[in-house]
Design brief:
This protein is mostly beta strands. The chain is built from three helices and twelve strands; from the N terminus they run E-E-H-E-E-E-E-E-E-H-E-E-E-E-H. Strands 1-10-9-3-7-6 form a six-stranded mixed β-sheet, with no helix packed on it. A six-stranded antiparallel β-sheet has the order 2-12-11-8-4-5. Strand 9 and strand 10 form a beta hairpin. It is globular and about 45 Å long. The mean pLDDT is about 90. Pfam families: TerD (PF02342).
Length: about 190
């Protein structure tokens, strides 16, 4: 098992996993058994930001309708959309090849939102055991994990973590910040 991160903790990937070149980022969660009148559909999304903290282009927003980054190597790939979150283990995941991230991308923001949250009267207060983890694609070993421990009773979007490039080094920040307004709130923040 890898390093367990706390909210706000930043760590150098070069220091904790010097051989890491590509990572699988797994996201998981459980939904409370409370009946909300509809299924929960949580969605992972990724924002590829430039120096200005905004998405480089519309194609640099990776989500269920745009599964790969626009660079020729598709350095960031979302591995589909799990619409129920049922079962153990990772509910959604993505591959990030750190060797191939284009130089204009300075930060990779990994988020989770609840699809049609307002319509379905759902929020992250009804979600348990949410986590994000980073696994070395080559060794299959978990490098780090961040378990979301806060109770977001009105929030419908959460920034889980950020990978960012600083001084020639990829680092990760365990963010754990919730927002009202779902995916649109995040789009407004990063567009």
């Amino acid at each position: 098992m890898g390093i367990s991160l706390e909210k706000g903790q930043r760590i150098s990937l070069t220091k904790v996993a010097p051989s890491l070149v590509a990572g699988f980022i797994g996201l998981g969660w459980d939904v409370n058994t409370t009946d909300t009148g509809g299924d929960f559909d949580l969605d992972a999304s990724v924002f590829l930001l430039g120096d200005n903290e905004k998405i480089v282009s519309d194609k640099h927003f990776i989500f269920y309708n745009n599964l790969v980054s626009p660079d020729p190597d598709h350095s960031v790939k979302l591995l589909g959309d799990n619409r129920t979150g049922e079962g153990d283990g990772d509910d959604e995941g993505l591959i990030v090849d750190l060797r191939k991230i284009p130089p204009e991308v300075k930060k990779i923001v990994v988020t989770v939102t609840i699809y049609e949250a307002d319509k379905r009267k759902q929020n992250f207060g009804q979600v348990n055991n949410a986590y994000i983890r980073l696994v070395d694609v080559q060794t299959k070993e978990e490098v780090l994990r961040y378990d979301l421990s806060e109770d977001f009773s009105v929030e419908t979007a959460v920034i889980m973590a950020e990978l960012y490039h600083q001084e020639g080094d990829w680092r990760i920040n365990a963010v754990g910040s919730g927002f009202q307004g779902g995916l649109q709130a995040l789009l407004d923040r990063y567009s």
